[in-house]
Specification:
With 193 residues, this protein is an alpha/beta fold. It has a single domain, classed as Rossmann fold (3-Layer(aba) Sandwich), CATH 3.40.50. Helices cover 37% and strands 23% of the residues. An eight-stranded mixed β-sheet has the order 2-3-4-1-5-7-6-8, with helices on both faces. Helix 1 crosses helix 5, helix 2 packs across helix 3 and helix 5 runs antiparallel to helix 6.
Length: 193
């Protein structure tokens, strides 16, 4: 049976909960909720698993802090013997407008330290990623403060719909393949049309 690994990037600890940088964790929490599974804390992260369309899916929320995410990804890929083409990393992106989803089969880290660490640890950029746009409403030199802040009130209202769409996109990656998932979900997740 084919196995898949969905990785949500974020930082552990209550001080990071609900911040823009933790959208990867929020999306995986939504996938787990929809699939009615819970996480358990294991080596280098919180793990959940379930069957979806005849495939085994593992959810990983690394406990290594964002900028060292690659260590956890590499460990669980090896542990579960999952091919790189069956990995999807879910992360925030300041280069995309709030609520925009962009799935790609491979690509650069785009200045994202979590993605860069995964590239370094796996020695490749050839893994799929789902970027969730968080916007760039910050002044010069304020990027770190921005990504580590909670969503504003307007964003918080729209967020559940965007998170649901990102969860659906992640499951589509597993069930329908990356090309179909990209065609279906790339774009503004907050636009119900």
């Amino acid at each position: 049976m084919k196995s898949f690994l969905l990785v949500g990037l974020g930082n552990i600890g209550s001080e990071y909960s609900g911040t823009r940088h933790n959208i990867g964790f929020e999306v995986l929490d939504e996938v787990a909720k929809q699939m009615e599974v819970g996480f358990e804390t294991l080596r280098l992260g919180d793990i959940a698993h379930f069957k979806h369309k005849g495939k085994t899916v593992y959810l990983l929320k690394p406990s290594t802090l964002m900028n060292s995410s690659g260590k956890a990804v590499r460990y669980w890929l090896k542990q579960k013997n999952i091919p790189l083409k069956n990995v999807l990393v879910i992360t925030d992106d300041i280069h995309l407008d709030f609520g925009t989803l962009r799935m790609r089969q491979k690509g650069s880290a785009g200045g994202h330290n979590g993605l860069q660490d995964i590239c370094d640890q796996l020695n490749t950029t050839a893994y799929a990623r789902l970027r969730f746009g968080i916007g760039s409403a910050f002044g010069r030199g304020r990027q770190v403060d921005f990504v580590l802040q909670p969503w504003d009130a307007d964003e918080a209202k729209l967020l559940p719909f965007g998170v649901d769409q990102a969860a659906q996109a992640s499951l589509s990656f597993v069930g329908d393949g990356v090309s179909n998932a990209m065609n279906t979900f790339n774009g503004n997740a907050l636009d119900p049309s």
